[in-house]
């Protein structure tokens, strides 16, 4: 209390001066129409500018939610387009028993949305960290896709985070096919450019031209068939001379990857169980 009184005593004349100035300004705008009009105009201009800044800030904050929704919708639309394409292929040609079996076994895929919190690009062994883990239903060997196409495969998991082995990893190996054909092979990245990879093991007699679409084959329980991977930009002989290698321009922009979806299927556990039984059988046989 004494400190307050000392402060008021010390700065009494300054405070009195400021109070009289404020009272004078109030009287000026209160009893003079022109000055009051100028004051209200300036005040409204400032208020309008502040409201505009506030609206822009809210809009920017909402971009995160909008981006999340667009990514999920894009992934959903890709799966729907792939399903329609499969139906169209069935109309144009007679579907074999094996093809029908594979297609039916890959039904029931669900998506677990996640955000990318870490992403490397310029190493031979790049990794991506996402903010979803075992507590969210993510498991090892689940496929990961983004708005532009295939991203990679879950490699390690913790309770709330997962490490993804992306296409841009020298050990990555994803089964892919050329759209509207039965030719499939393994997609591999050889380092260097973050926008290209190579599809190997395509027969030399295959007639494939530049611009052909490459998509997931569906010959595994990791990815459903028909998820876009990229487009062929170059066709050449593989190093072994026995097959073709296709240079593929990847659809996923890894440098700007922020939102992804983890592909979840109830069939994967059954497929893994069959492989375990096969390993046990082979072990007993030896």
Write up this protein:
41% of the residues lie in helices and 28% in strands. It has a single domain (65-278), classed as Rod shape-determining protein MreC, domain 2 (Thrombin, subunit H). Helix 2 (12-31) packs across helix 3. With 286 residues, the chain is an alpha+beta fold. The N and C termini lie far apart (93 Å). The longest helix is centred in the N-terminal third of the chain and has 60 residues, at 33-92. The strands form 2 sheets. The protein has a 6-stranded antiparallel beta barrel with strand order 1-2-5-4-3-12. It has a 6-stranded antiparallel β-barrel with strand order 6-7-8-11-10-9.
Brief account:
The protein is of the alpha+beta class and 286 residues long.
Helix content: 40-55%
Radius of gyration: 31 Å
Structural class: alpha+beta
Within the CATH hierarchy, at the fold level, what is the topology? Answer: Thrombin, subunit H
Q: Give the count of structural domains.
A: 1
Low-confidence stretches: 95-106
CATH architectural arrangement: Beta Barrel
- For the residues shown, what is the average pLDDT? 78
Distance between the termini: 93 Å
Q: CATH superfamily assignment?
A: Rod shape-determining protein MreC, domain 2
Strand order of the largest sheet: 1-2-5-4-3-12
Strand content: 25-35%
Largest sheet entry: 6 strands, antiparallel, barrel
Number of β-strand runs: 12
CATH class: Mainly Beta
